[in-house]
Write a structure and sequence with these properties.
With 514 residues, the chain is α+β, with helices and mostly antiparallel strands. The protein is built from 15 helices and 14 strands. It has a domain of 108 residues: Beta Polymerase, domain 2. Strand 8 and strand 9 form a beta hairpin. Helix 5 runs antiparallel to helix 6, helix 6 packs antiparallel against helix 7 and helix 6 runs antiparallel to helix 15. The longest helix is centred in the middle third of the chain and has 29 residues.
């Protein structure tokens, strides 16, 4: 069954792929979610907005993707309660999104997990920062946030708390392990420690200028976020992007993918006790970042993708230098992959470690790179392509074992494919403009941009007011879907393997703790 079978009335929705938008009541919402789950549609995102100033109350938005494209369901909540039925029976990944929707907007969920997710006692429980009548954050006196972790009882069961402050330069996350000896029986995460109020910060920003904030949602995915944001703005304004700009955006996205995969390949080697890998891949990643700075003016490619195109074009010399680097990287990658594949100690650590089966990946809504390592061939560059991906073939790399070794292998293969794609794009780069002026965005219209980042799909949904400022912007990271799956992947493994399993997913804290 497809979502179209429930008869959602089409409405105007700007999106990079065929899409529809429908206002639904509670019964239709639950029916749509059931139909979507039965048809193996994906929950893309879930968020709430305050539309009381437009006479619509609090509005829940649920984005679903099936073979026909993207559907955004809009459900206006009853003002007397602001309640909604629990959607986790259909989509397990909805659980934390629902809890965040309550913390930020006050949407309550019948029969669902009621524990706070983002609030952390940082503000009063009755203050909801995304409501339009919310004043500046009230002063919240220091309080102990006694979070109700789930515990496992039994003979020989012990609890190991890890974090939220870690012995390294990483962001904070709290992990509670229930173990017998070194074997993990259960893991429960708590995130939200770097909540920055980004969605509230977007409100009132100029639509055409807020791409800089979008690009800082998660620094390792700045190209993906900036492109998804620009895509939504360009849809609102009816502004087509020049072919040269679209191709340069794809080069930037693939180079972001390459740099992150190279960093992870080294870190995975290091976590398995193979420091040689960390040294070699750190060297290669540094070469990529320096070439980024030389060609585009920023090592991480921040602020290069802008509404209307790109802020930095490349000349022939820069293009030739990038293509020459692709040749060197491909050769070095092949040599290092042979070393990784033949290193018995490394292979012993990564095989059959942190397994997520295909069935689990489907049931839990796993996305992106991790899903492809568990046998799910999901990639927006092929499944819902925007220019220039709609005019070229992109190989979707999959593995079926779903373990650390599979996630490592997918990274190797994706670097090879990204090098090929980059070289093809640069070789065919057309003449013409790399940027055009953006028209006036249409007010009170939902716009959605979606890009396959290196970790997985990134979505940005926004709408603006008549004065050209943002009414709301919801950036959505794939990590929302994949963090809960990590809790399942670690079960049955030993505690010392957790850093290795965790790094094989390498999920975002910042993109999650908005």
């Amino acid at each position: 069954m497809k979502l179209g079978t429930i008869g959602i009335a089409p409405a105007r929705l700007i999106a990079p792929a065929p899409a529809q938008r429908g206002a639904v009541d509670t019964t239709a919402l639950m029916t749509a979610c059931r139909v979507a789950a039965e048809g193996r549609a994906r929950l893309v995102a879930l968020w709430a907005t305050d539309e009381r100033d437009r006479g619509r109350g609090l509005v829940l938005r649920v984005a679903l993707r099936d073979a026909d494209g993207l559907t955004v369901l809009e459900h206006a909540l009853a003002e007397t309660t602001w309640h909604c039925p629990d959607l986790t029976p259909f989509f397990p990944a909805a659980g934390r999104l629902q809890r965040a929707a309550f913390d930020l907007c006050g949407v309550a969920w019948d029969g669902a997990d009621q524990r706070p997710w983002l609030r952390h006692a940082a503000w009063p429980a009755d203050w909801f920062p995304l409501r339009r009548d919310a004043a500046d954050p009230p002063h919240a006196p220091a309080a102990v946030d006694d979070y109700a972790f789930v515990r496992v009882d039994g003979d020989g069961v012990h609890e190991i708390p890890v974090g939220p402050v870690h012995a390294g330069i990483i962001e904070p996350g709290h992990f509670r392990f229930q173990v017998v000896g070194e074997k993990v029986l259960r893991l429960e995460e708590r995130l939200g420690y770097v909540h920055k109020g980004i969605e509230r910060r977007f409100v009132g920003q100029p639509v055409v200028g807020a791409h800089r904030l979008a690009g800082r949602v998660s620094g390792d995915s700045t190209v993906a976020y900036a492109w998804a944001y620009a895509q939504a703005v360009e849809g609102l304004a009816g502004t087509p992007v020049p072919p040269r700009a679209a191709m340069l955006r794809a080069v930037l996205l693939e180079r972001e993918r390459i740099a992150n995969h190279l960093g992870d390949l080294g870190a995975l080697g290091n976590d398995a006790g193979f420091a040689f890998g960390l040294a070699q891949f750190s060297r290669l990643r540094e070469d990529v970042l320096r070439a980024n700075a030389a060609a585009f003016g920023h090592r991480l490619l921040m602020d290069v993708v802008v509404p209307g195109g790109v802020a930095r074009d490349v000349d022939d010399d820069a293009r030739d230098a990038l293509r020459a680097q692709h040749v060197v990287l491909a050769a070095e990658l092949a040599r290092l992959r042979e070393i990784y594949d033949e290193h018995a100690g490394l292979q012993d650590r990564i095989r059959a470690c942190g397994v997520v089966t295909t069935a689990q990946a489907l049931a839990l809504g796993l996305e992106g790179l991790a899903a492809r390592a568990s046998g799910l061939a999901l990639d927006l560059r092929r499944d819902a392509p925007c220019a220039p991906y709609d005019a070229m073939e992109v190989g979707v790399v999959t593995r079926r074992d779903g373990d650390v070794a599979a996630r490592l292998a997918v990274r190797f293969d994706e670097v090879v494919e990204s090098l090929r794609v980059c070289d093809a794009l640069l070789a065919a780069l057309p003449d013409g403009d790399s940027h055009v002026a953006v028209g006036t965005p249409a007010p009170f219209t939902l716009a959605v941009g979606a890009i396959e980042g290196w970790r997985g799909p990134v979505l940005v949904a926004l709408d603006c007011a008549e004065d050209g400022t943002l009414r709301h912007c919801h950036p959505h990271d794939v990590s929302w879907h994949n963090w809960p799956v990590l809790e399942h992947a670690v079960i049955g493994n030993i505690v010392p393997d957790f850093p290795l399993i965790n790094k094989s997913f390498n999920l975002s804290y910042s993109g999650h703790d908005l």
